[in-house]
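>> received
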Amino acid sequence: MTSQHVAAINFNGKWAYAKKRIQKLKAAGFIGERARRMNEPSILFLTRKAFILLRDEGILSAYPPLPLDSLEARGNVSDLTLRHELAVMDVKTQFHATLAKSSKFRLAGFTTWPMLNQFESPGGDHGSNVTIRPDGFIRIEKTEAGAATFAHHCFLELDRSTEKLDLLVNRAASYLEYYKSGGFAAKNGADSSDYRRYPFRVIMVFKTAERRNNTAERLLQCNPPILSLAWLTTFAEVTTDPLGAIWIQPRQYREATMDTRFDTEQRTTTFVYRHNPEREAFIESKIQKLRLLES
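>> returned
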């Protein structure tokens, strides 16, 4: 994460306080900084000394066990992985900042450790399972008189257009299976047959509206189609106002295009990725976008 992420998440955006604490943690050897060019932001990571302290204090007991070498290696990821992880932190930061101003909701948790939220799903080769590792898991509580009355659960999938679209769509299908099989209910201590009491959303963030719309079309072609589990938006929108009317479901996409030349029902079931600025403009003008917490 960057020092700006630290300030937003841990110091309510107060940069001066964050800077002083970061300097102390660096001096004590708990935080390191990646090598960077003059125009690049400071990117911070936990050192081996920090992981040893966290382990000895029992802070890591709830996390999947990993050797210290593996934990330390997280500070030396590839540039591609780094850009993805920083984008995830940008989303997390905006959720923190937005919900800090809300009188109705509070952010009860936003974890970005994929192994902490991973699950197994059918769909691997030769009948094997595949492991789904979300980019994040979010718990938002609705509050009244300071007490939580309801919790919204969201898995985060952040797409930087570096994967084939089919891979992302297959992941969405895995989330649907995870819900219907009662896997998420069981993880929450309930019987798998009680899955309807444990709903969640998969919020999918894309670099462009074109990629978002192509994904919506592809989700509608799934068998069964994914209509409301997936909530789609762009990176620019979610890092501006994640609680605003920025989200679309495949259901809304289908309704917006029905009986038009963009109607997905009138096309072949073979999906073709489309570059169509006219379609993107049409969707933006016609689709009824949703708020994440008010529908």
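>> The chain has a mean pLDDT of 91.
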